[in-house]
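Continuing the series of single-chain predictions for the mutant panel. This is the parent chain; the variants come on the following pages.
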Amino acid sequence: MKNLIISMVATVFLISFSFAEGESCLSTTDVSVEEAQQRLSSVLGQAKVVSVSEAPIEGFYEIIVELRGRKIPIYVDCDFNYLITGEIIDIKKRESLTRKKILELSKEAVEDKIKKLEKIIGKEKAQKLKEKVGTAFLEKAKIVDITGMPKENLVLGNPNAKIKIYIIEDPECPACAIYHESIEEVLKDRKDIAFGIILFPLPFHKHAKGVSYNIICQKDMNKKQEILKKSFEHVKNKKSEALKDLQRKASGDCKKAEEIINTNMEFFGKKVPIGGTPTTVFPLKNGKGIMISGVLDKETIEEIVDILYK
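Parent structure:
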């Protein structure tokens, strides 16, 4: 049941309603955000209730919940007996009122991020980010506090480069292997950019932790880079068993590797949770950063860099 709201974020079901006459929920009962959160706690999981209002149809509340930075509407009857996670369709207008609300919430979220960015990087840069990179990027991106962020485990590119971007990745992650190609393309053209790699081995990748330990245990940066590159080559070629040869235990002269990985997992798993690997962090002023999960192409990376740091 706790995965119900997560599932709703990923997919929405089409449900039609006819509009009934009667009293609205709020005309008879005033429900606070706190009470709604408590009464829905068994199905919300990590989602947070942010507002309670009248639904577009009689007899239901429209409750806005936030999960992983995204706000979505759900509908609950006045007595909190039934929860609907589908779309409300206005049959006469042939319009989805739910999708309309989601678009409104997305627009509000983007504008809110723009206002926050204006305070950090200035109005001109914030508007350029919106115009050149696009609202789709801003909708997915999060502004986070990266104070105390773990140190990178290896660096790709010139370690003394003027600009350093951070990538949180898993050495057994297929998307990370694809992203590595974009990073290499950037480094061919841009000597002013370096990428600090923070290892985040996902628990369902059986070789990821051992490969991460091996990378951390190496003293030579070239060797670290070589192991990561080989790991991604094996992943791309679907040779998962070949990853065994790249593993190492966190023991003997390399006990620190386990502690380092645990620190990474704690920070990006709990303090500043990522939405998956790879995740990119563009550091800003005053301990803030723009964080976005997923693969970015060379052009997008360079566009963001040129807006933020020039």
